[in-house]
Amino acid sequence: MKIEVIKGDITKIHADAIVNAANSSLLGGGGVDGAIHRAGGPKILEECRVIRNRQGKCSTGEAVVTTAGNLPSKYVIHTVGPVWNDHKEKSSELLSNCYKNSLKLAGDLGVKVIAFPNISTGIYKFPKELAGEIAVNEVRKFQSDSIEKVIFVCFDEENEEIYKKKLKESF
Ligand code: ADP
Q1: Ligand 1 proximal residues by C-beta, below 6 Å
Q2: Among protein residues, the one whose CA lies closest to atom 3 of ligand 1
Q3: CA 22 to centroid of ligand 1, rounded, Å
């Protein structure tokens, strides 16, 4: 599996699936969630509502999928990152689950290229270094017959440097 780190806006990425750092309501929010719904149009939110009516809210660490509306990808995988709360072990496990469950869902859908934002490192205040380490480790560990490439789309230079460093260290 190829792993790439780039700086950019995930709504512009041409991949089979992009991942959204959603909140448990699935009804949209700020940050990357707001950007995805703005750029993708109302179809994504409609599908999120259907999922919500079926299963209730999405728990932290879990992932659900919708189509991608007007975005250049096929799917949006919505995962709910943990809010950083100083329970390092628990928060780390939940963030690991976000990556694992998103990758698993993508694999089941036959996704070849998937792009992740830096989940939980914005409004949810997860320490960036630790979040980067968890993200890279989970992707490295993941075995898939379908996924060929994972792109970490960093919105700021600090995260871009962190993810590049963590990726280098993981070889
Ligand atoms: P969370 O609530 O999980 O912290 P945020 O959306 O606040 O979610 O932040 C997650 C990460 O997404 C942050 O690093 C933020 O800078 C980044 N981000 C915000 N907008 C975009 C975007 N359009 N594309 C990629 N990353 C983005």
Answers
A1: 9-11, 21, 31-33, 35, 81, 117-124, 153, 155-156, 159
A2: 120
A3: 10
| pLDDT band per the 50, 70, 90 thresholds, residue 154 | very high
Q: What CATH number was assigned to the domain covering residues 2-169?
A: 3.40.220.10
Query: What does the domain layout of the chain look like in residue ranges?
Result: 2-169
**What is the reported pLDDT for 86?**
79
Q: What ipTM describes this predicted complex?
A: 0.98
- For residue 19, give the nearest of 121, 95, 106, 109 by alpha carbon: 106
pTM comes to 0.98
The encoded tokens of residue 38 equal 């703005």
Q: 48 with 27: CB under 8 angstroms? A: yes
